[in-house]
Amino acid sequence: PNCYDPQTLVASGAFTLAYCCGVEAYRYRHIVEPVATPIYWHSTQDGLYRSVVLTHETSRWGAEALESLYQDIVSGHVRVAVNQRYSWSGCLIVVQELGSAIRQNWRHWPETGSHLNSLQWLIDGKADAVFLDETSWAMIKRAKLADLDRVRVVGHTGSMPRCPIVVPKGYPFLRRGVETVLKSTSASSLGLTGFYFAEPDFWIDRFAN
Q1: Taking the model in full, what pTM does it have?
Q2: Which of 51, 57, 112 is nearest to 81 (CA)?
Q3: In the predicted model, is pLDDT for residue 11 greater than 80?
Q4: What residues form DSSP beta bridges with 165?
Q5: What is the DSSP secondary-structure string of 118-152?
Q6: By CB neighbour count within 10 A (0-12 exposed, 13-18 middle, 19+ buried), where does 34 fall?
Q7: Which of 74, 84, 96, 205 is the most buried (most CB within 10 A)?
Q8: Of the candidates 48, 41, 2, which has an alpha carbon nearest to the alpha carbon of residue 22?
Q9: Beta strands of 30-168 (E only): which ranges?
Q10: 3-class secondary structure, 106
Q11: pLDDT for 22-51, tens place per residue?
Q12: CA-to-CA distance for 81 and 135, rounded, in angstroms?
């Protein structure tokens, strides 16, 4: 289920395994704990990934113009759209990289609801720049969606832990069971090659900062 009250979901007994944003794993660290993160065909094996910074082909921000784009975002001259305001890969990673200079502006960036919707906003000219996690971007390119030739990659953000698979906190037998199952799981048709396993602090420490 898609539940915006994880505490209630855990208490209901309906939750044994979930896949969530690293920010949510940190926010609800008192009731959930990360176990692992998926590794895909295009990714590194260290559990980290980046976001791709995209602009429209007709914009003045060409390839390798990330610094110029960031300066214009700070000055308020860029229409930024985000999938969700509290998505790390789609919004907060940029807030962290640009710091206090945009702390007053980023809450006004419109939310599109998903990375795919953000991309469509860019293609349709409703936004000047969007941020997609590199796995979503790789899958979109693999699917050969229409009008991708109208999109330009300007650069990449810094690295961050991939979205974790989490279990309810305080059930070590469940954690071990999930680890055992995931260690023998892959899905080549989805581009899933395996999982990166780590202690919860791999995610908690990063998103605490």
Answers
A1: 0.86
A2: 112
A3: no
A4: 19, 36
A5: HHHHHHTTS-SEEEEEHHHHHHHHHTT-TTGGGEE
A6: buried
A7: 84
A8: 48
A9: 32-40, 48-49, 51-56, 129-133, 151-156, 160-161, 165-168
A10: helix
A11: 888 888 888 889 999 999 998 888 999 999
A12: 19
How many C-beta neighbours within 10 Å does residue 37 have?
Answer: 23
Backbone angles phi, psi at 76, to 5 degrees: 85, 20
Residue whose tokens read 């990166």: 196
Pull the structure tokens for residue 17: 């395994």
Is the pLDDT score of 78 beyond 70?
yes
Q: Which amino acid is at 72?
A: D
Q: Which amino acid is at 152?
A: R
21 residue type, one letter:
C
Structure tokens at 203: 């995610």
Q: By the 8 A CB rule, do 82 and 125 touch?
A: no
Structure tokens given for 86 = 């509290």
- Structure tokens, 187: 């899905």
